Amino acid sequence: MRSDRAHVAANTDRFSGFAELYDSQRPRPPEIIVDLLTQLAAKDRPVVVDLGSGTGLSTILWARAAAEVVGVEPNADMRAQAERRAADSGAGAIRFIEGLSTATGLPDRYADIVTCSQSLHWMEPNGTFAEVARILRDGGVFAAYDCDWPPTVNAEAEQAYNACRVKAEALERSLRLAPEVRRWNKDGHLERIRQSGRFRYVKEVVLHHVE
User: Fold this and answer.
1) Is residue 102 part of a domain?
2) 65 lies in a domain?
3) CA–CA gap between residue 11 and residue 181 (Å, rounded)
């Protein structure tokens, strides 16, 4: 239990101190996600919960289509940046709350759609899937989505980025800069969701996006 708490705290603290930079450089989700998930949920004006909402990029995406949107984010810096973004955008029924993917504090069967935008790899799977199943209404939709990274620009840029990442991760390990941080491999998301037994149907969808 102590180890689990340490991982949660380390994963949360990892995003402190650079929320504004993060917000300015983070890839934007493709807006087609809103149309696709609304169709799958069969709800014209859904209630949406965005887990690990960060600076709100994936939360405010729903402003035009949702009856209510709740961003759940444990990091205070990220939430503050999200609230500024929401205020600047004039987005309507959107709020951000402190919470974890395993303990949102939201009522049972609250949401029509629950999303994780490029954040599921930071979340403990079993507790997260149990919480998603609890807050989803019957027939609701859970969507965890990521972007392929690095983006395809040219070979030299991609090779340089990958080489930089390898060196940065090796340096982090050698200096033990974040020994308690834990992430789950993105390649295993689909199978972990399927094996959880929490969802009636599981599939992968690939979307194209230009930014």
Assistant:
1) yes
2) yes
3) 5
Residues whose CB is less than 8 angstroms from the CB of residue 39 and which lie 6 or more positions away in sequence, other chains included: none
Is residue 167 included in any domain, yes or no? Answer: no
- Which residues span the domain enclosing 109? 2-150+183-196
The predicted model gives 48-54 an average pLDDT of 97
Structure confidence at residue 1 (pLDDT): 46
Spatial separation of the C-alpha atoms in residues 148 and 204, rounded to whole Å: 14
pLDDT at 49: 98
For residue range 167-207, list pLDDT tens digits in order: 999 998 899 887 888 989 999 999 999 999 999 999 999 99
Q: How far is CA 211 from CA 25, 52, 59, 151, in A?
A: 12, 22, 18, 10
* DSSP 8-state assignment for residue 106: P
Proportion of the chain above pLDDT 70, given as a percent: 99
**Single-letter code of the amino acid located at 57:** L
**What is the C-alpha to C-alpha distance for residues 91 and 5, in angstroms, rounded to an integer?**
34
Tell me whether strands 136-145 and 111-117 are parallel, antiparallel or unpaired.
parallel
Residue 31 covered by a domain = yes
Q: How many domains does the chain have?
A: 1
Q: What is the pTM of this model?
A: 0.92
User: In CATH, what number is assigned to the domain containing residue 96?
Assistant: 3.40.50.150
3-state secondary structure of 25: helix
